[in-house]
Write a structure and sequence with these properties.
With 90 residues, this protein is largely without helices or strands. Helices cover 13% and strands 7% of the residues. Keywords: DNA-binding.
Length: 90
């Protein structure tokens, strides 16, 4: 599988960013606006070219509540550590 243009090809829409140089470390698609680390985008393009299909992930339709609403801020006490139950071969 050729790796030609993987750094310039958009993982989402397949558009090509012809203006990307080797100094640019962030990929920005001029067609759809997708932005990602250049190397990560190229890796995803290669996976897509190999036939990999990304899993469907639900998209939040409303903002995620701030951390205080989740009860994660202002907690007192020591470190919370939970050990996994022992593995028993069957």
């Amino acid at each position: 599988m050729p790796a030609y243009n993987t750094s310039r090809e958009c993982f989402l829409c397949g558009g090509i960013n012809q203006n990307l140089t080797l100094e640019d470390r962030v990929f920005l698609c001029p067609h759809c606006g997708f932005t990602l680390d250049r190397d990560l985008n190229a890796s995803l393009v290669l996976l897509k070219r190999s036939g990999w299909v990304p899993p469907a992930v639900p998209v939040e339709l409303h903002p995620i509540p701030p951390l205080p609403a989740l009860g994660l801020v202002g907690r007192q006490g020591g470190a919370m550590r939970q050990e996994a139950p022992p593995f028993m071969a069957g």
